[in-house]
From TrEMBL:
PROSITE patterns: GLYCOPROTEASE (PS01016). Belongs to the KAE1 / TsaD family. It is found in: Cytoplasm. This is tRNA N6-adenosine threonylcarbamoyltransferase. CDD domains: ASKHA_NBD_TsaD_bac.
């Protein structure tokens, strides 16, 4: 095996059909087909629509990735796929496609964890992750602080949201302000015109007696909705930019404070931020300021690698091959609630192909 494995990764846990191709820690292709516009009128992702869109986009997206990378499918050293967590039906499309390609091409298959992939993607931009690295993962489905060692085997949860995910809060506040879906990018844009100190919105779970590494955004979301409602009832104009900026300030303040604290408490001097909300400009700015002050090295992938994509799955798959991890077997299944500690799903029935041959006898 070459020491720079060539791996194709498939991601279908939510509304993005992502196919990435990676050689070692070098990104060769990152093809994404998103069904986000099909969900916009529902104000959130509709699982059945996402699954169907994955099915339609899968083969062309794989072909596009292979063309962009300029590699032949037969040259691949492995196929990686998000096995969970995520939407069950959506995951199933990716897992089935990955199995079909692995079977047809006679390649090892690696079912990997979506969250570990969000961390590992940073290797494509900043080189191999130091061990340990603290990871703040903030997306539409997750907000977690994770301590990672060897990313193929060792991801430990320190804390998570007890209610809404950070991205979910952005999406709900955008809806209250009539800004459309998904909310993050538009709130980010509006906030640039506003004053983050204009309104003192609450910082959840931030008193001394609260759990240090857990998050809560539901109270903040409600506070924003009440504030906006009161203005409207009084017949006053809602200062949308100030609301967006003040809400964003509350979210980023809590996220960065807890992340830096987790690093200090655990003696970790590298922090990575991943997931869709890591695309937020204020979060990136505040995290940089606070990390600089605390002597922590901050690693944040570029926005396109923070949101769901196939490159992150390929990045973790490539690491699995490089570190000689056991491939998944033929009976790999999608697990919508795959625990974060399960970085990958090694086969219990030995090698994928050996088991497939056995099953087909
Ligand atoms: O990681 P991701 O693409 O999908 C999930 O796994 O959820 O994250 C999507 C989330 C959405 O809630 C979206 O509003 C949020 O990331 N998001 C942002 C920004 N860009 C995307 N939130 C804040 N600021 C942004 N610039
Ligand atoms: Zn994600």
């Amino acid at each position: 095996m070459a020491d720079e494995p060539l791996v194709l990764g498939i991601e279908t846990s939510c509304d993005e059909t992502g196919v990435g191709i990676v050689r070692g820690t070098t990104l060769l292709a990152d093809a994404v087909a998103s069904s986000v516009n099909d969900h916009a009128r529902f104000g959130g992702v509709v699982p059945e629509i996402a699954s169907r869109a994955h099915l339609e986009a899968m083969v062309p997206t794989i072909q596009r990735a292979l063309d962009t990378a300029g590699v032949k499918a037969s040259d691949l050293d492995g196929i990686a796929v998000t096995a969970g967590p995520g939407l069950a039906g959506a995951l199933l499309v990716g897992v089935s496609a990955a199995k079909a390609y692995a079977w047809a091409l006679d390649k090892p298959l690696y079912g990997v964890n979506h969250l570990a992939s969000h961390i590992c993607v940073d290797q494509l931009e900043h080189g191999r992750l130091p061990e340990p690295t603290m990871a703040l993962l903030v997306s539409g489905g997750h907000s977690s602080l994770l301590l990672s060692g060897d990313i193929t085997t060792d991801v430990r949860p320190l804390g998570a949201t007890i209610d809404d995910a950070a991205g979910e809060a952005f999406d709900k506040v955008a809806r209250v302000l009539g800004l459309g879906f998904p909310g993050g990018p538009v709130v980010d844009r509006m906030a640039r015109e506003g004053d983050g100190k204009a309104i003192a919105f609450p910082r959840g779970l931030s008193s001394a007696s609260d759990p240090a590494y857990d998050f809560s955004f539901s109270g903040l979301k409600t506070a924003v909705a009440r504030w906006v409602e009161a203005k409207r009832r009084a017949g006053e104009t809602v200062p949308v930019a100030d609301v967006a900026a003040s809400f964003q300030e509350a979210v980023t303040d809590v996220l960065t404070r807890k992340a830096v604290r987790a690093c200090k408490d655990n003696g970790v001097d590298h922090l990575m931020i991943g997931g869709g909300v890591a695309a937020n400009s204020r979060l990136r700015e505040m995290a940089q300021q606070r990390c600089d002050k605390a002597g922590i090295v901050l690693r944040v992938p570029r926005p396109g690698l923070c949101t769901d994509n196939g490159a992150m799955v390929a990045a973790l798959g490539s690491e699995m091959v490089w570190r000689n991890r056991t491939p998944s077997s033929f009976d790999l299944s999608a697990d919508s609630s795959l625990p974060v500690t399960e970085t990958h799903v090694p086969g219990e029935h030995g090698d994928f192909h050996a088991h497939a041959h056995e099953a087909l006898k």
